[in-house]
């Protein structure tokens, strides 16, 4: 596994960035070709479970995960529990007054990294625009 860590600046305060980031049902609006849903728990606490389908139509894969850390508005960590995606992932929000930073970190298989990286970079740019307009 290798650690992939990408960052983007968001023209929104940390609380809005966090709210946009953890609105699981709407993640597909910024995360490329992905739909996320809460499968267990409230989605806003450690122990909650999520399911993310990435693909087009019926072609794709499901990434299941368990929230292992919930520290609003700064950090959410998950343990990937699926067959294809394993390891840990983390979203971090870095407050900087009226703006914030968003860090996406994942432990990924080096072979998947090549396919994964362009989509994550595009998703981060989309997230910055999405969070800026997210209802306060």
TrEMBL record:
<dbReference type="Pfam" id="PF10604">
    <property type="entry name" value="Polyketide_cyc2"/>
</dbReference>
<dbReference type="InterPro" id="IPR023393">
    <property type="entry name" value="START-like_dom_sf"/>
</dbReference>
<protein>
    <recommendedName>
        <fullName>Polyketide cyclase/dehydrase/lipid transport protein</fullName>
    </recommendedName>
</protein>
<dbReference type="InterPro" id="IPR019587">
    <property type="entry name" value="Polyketide_cyclase/dehydratase"/>
</dbReference>
